[in-house]
Design goal:
Blueprint: E1 4-6, E2 22-27, E3 37-45, E4 51-55, E5 62-66, E6 72-74, E7 79-81, E8 85-88, E9 95-99, E10 103-110, H1 114-119, E11 130-132, H2 133-136, H3 138-150, H4 154-169, H5 177-188, H6 195-201, H7 206-216, H8 221-239, H9 246-252, H10 258-268, H11 273-277, E12 281-283, E13 286-288
Helix pairs in contact: 3-4
Length: about 290
């Protein structure tokens, strides 16, 4: 099993990892589940001080397990502590989260339609929400939480998760070829494809495509495509040196108007592209603020 370790560059001192207090480990799923699970993320930060984080959409729902201190979600209306395990749907706006202790989180990042495939619930009904595993999957969810939280090795934790996913998939239908075909087209164009271009290729009407995206993914094709375009831009941005102009990276990724990009950033992430590039990331869509 391939493990990919990411440590933000500013934590590397004198050619070693002295003073590193956070890392991200990305693990691919077993091949037979790659159509449902995109990857696993291990997020850790041993800082015990209060830290503010921001989470924004990467186009994928997921499942979360906390092994140490759960994050606190802050909104204008209320403050709530995350449960020890839960699933979350598509994010339609960024979320502000607060850490008050050490982080040790396992995130199962699903393919965009993965949560619908497991739950049978219309994805649009899960947008911006989280549901405890034992509420969504009843006894099976409680058993999975116990198994994952009480195991010591990451490989064993993932084996429990994959056994659970495999059993659930035996009784549900996965997305049809229209949805998977649309996703492949969007991915191959790195998000630089319009809905009208999709309709020129796919045997479906615009209303039908919108309906299927909401059912399986939770958002419409136009919005999903914009998120994928942004994700490719962010990945490319992180690979560039500090002296690379953001405008050049934006142009390479299909953004031809810097003002439009800045407005999109502020609306969907809450900061500017330059502030994002300078940030200490735990994941491409999860950062300290």
């Amino acid at each position: 099993m391939l493990l990919v370790l990411f440590v933000p560059p500013n934590y590397i001192k004198n050619g070693n990892f002295t003073n590193v207090n956070r890392f991200v480990m990305q693990i691919p799923p077993s091949p037979h589940l790659a159509h449902i699970i995109k990857h696993y993320l291990i997020l850790e930060n041993n800082c015990t001080k209060q830290v503010n984080y921001r989470l924004f959409s990467d186009g994928n729902p997921g499942m979360v397990f906390y092994f140490k201190t759960p994050l606190i979600q802050q909104t204008a209306a209320q403050i709530s502590i995350h449960p020890n395990s839960f699933v979350y749907g598509q994010l339609t706006q960024y979320k502000d989260l607060l850490s008050t202790g050490e982080l040790n989180i396992l995130v199962v990042v699903f393919q965009s339609y993965g949560l619908h495939a497991l739950s049978g619930i219309a994805a649009v009904d899960l947008n911006d929400g989280l549901i405890k595993l034992n509420e969504l999957f009843k006894r099976e969810g409680s058993d999975l939480e116990d198994q994952v939280l009480n195991e010591t090795g990451i490989r064993s934790k993932i084996e429990h998760i994959e056994s659970f996913v495999s059993k659930k998939l035996a009784s549900v239908q996965c997305p049809d070829k229209i949805i998977t075909g649309a996703l492949k087209l969007i991915d191959s164009h790195k998000g630089n494809i319009s809905v009208s271009q999709l309709l020129n290729i796919l045997p479906i009407t615009e209303k039908q495509l919108e309906r299927r995206f909401n059912q399986y993914i939770g958002i419409g094709p136009k919005r999903f495509t914009a998120i994928m375009k942004l994700q490719y831009f962010l990945k490319n941005l992180q690979r560039q040196s500090s002296d690379t102009k953001i405008a050049d990276v934006a142009y390479e990724n299909g953004y031809y108007d810097q003002a439009h990009l800045n407005n999109y950033f502020k609306k969907n992430i809450g900061i500017t592209p330059s502030a994002y590039k300078a940030n200490n990331l735990l994941a491409i869509n999860f950062m300290q603020v």
